[in-house]
Structures are given as C-alpha cells and as structure tokens.
Amino acid sequence: MFCESFINNKISALRLKISIALLLALVACGTDNGKTKGKGHSNQIVPIEKAYENEMAKNLQLNRKNEGNTANYVRIESLKETVFEKGATYHFIKDSCAFYFECDCCSGLYVFPTDSTFYSISNCMNDEIVRQGTYRLADFELRLIFDQWVQRKMVKTALESDTTPDEVIIQRKKVEPMVKNYFTTKCGDLIKLTDSLDESLATEASLNYANIMKELAENKLIGQ
User: Fold this and answer.
1) Pairing status of strand 200-204 against strand 127-138
2) pLDDT tens for residues 105-117?
C-alpha cells in the first residue's frame, strides 16, 4: 500500500510539472506569434493616421450607400483664400443650397488663408470665437485638425442711460484638441463639405475673404 501510494504521488507530481511546462510553452508561442503578426497581420496595432483613413473609407462607403451613390463627390486641390459658411444639417435647404438660420448662435465660418491652414469662426450674440488649425485634402475628404488655443472676443454692452463705451474683452483659452472630417461634394455650383458623421455642413460663401481677415486682425483674434 505504501509503495502504491508513493508511486501515485510521484505520477501526480510529474503530471503537474508537464502541465505547467506545456502552459509556459503555449504562452511563449502565443507571444512570438503576436510579435510576428504585428509586422502585418490582423492583430497589429494600427497607427492613428491609418485608423483615420480606414474610418473615413468606411464612412464614405456608408454615405454613398445611404444616398444611393447620388452624392456628387469632387476632388479639391486647394481651398486657399476661400470662405465657407457652416451650420447644422437641419438648417440647410437642399433646393437652394443655402442655410436658413433661425437663431443668433447657429452659424459660423471657415476661412482658409493658405493651402494648409484655416480659421473656424463661431458667433453668438456679442461673442466671437476663433480657432485656428491645419487641414488636409485627400481624394474626396477634408480633415480639419483644430489647435488647442481659441481666441474669444466678448462685448459688454453698456446700458442705454450709460454714456461710457462698450467694453471689449479678448480672452485666450486652452481647450481640448479636436479633429473634424468632411466629404467634399457639390451642391449646384457650390462646393459643399459634408460631415462624415452627418452632423453639420459647410458651403462656399460669397463673402470677401480679405475683409474677413482684416477684421479678425483688427479685433486681435488672429496673429497673437
């Protein structure tokens, strides 16, 4: 009985050692496979830029599917010295390719001074917020990369009985970084920027680019 028990214990211990060895071997193999696959297989970590391109491609396919391929996608080489009016999709009238804003804080502008930079302008009552960024055009896509700093102009209006002038306050504030993606399409003869998430639009505006840039500089909203 003693010998039999002793032998059984030895066999159990040996089985445990074998199991542990096999487990360690499997883990090691899995790690090596992960490293190998990381060079180009499905489990590799996708770079942020590639992930963006993949996501935009998916959204473009979905957008085309939803619109039955009727959207007039266009490739744009440059947006230099152009102005776009921006707003929510529910403020856009497709028949006239124009916005109809029903509030004082619904509209804004995109201004593109160069081939790679832009300003986003948002107005609300007496407030004006300007945020700079860079952009990239590729195929039917526009990517806006917003800087972390915004310039805000606030006007404190004096009472009618007060003879003192209105007080203008300029603030510079750091905010969270942001990226916005658009598809470049046409609406009539105008270039239309369609949000990849279908939340907002922007269309070419017949506003004077030089006058807008001059006003922004005079108000100390750019070049600071």
Assistant:
1) unpaired
2) 888 999 999 999 9
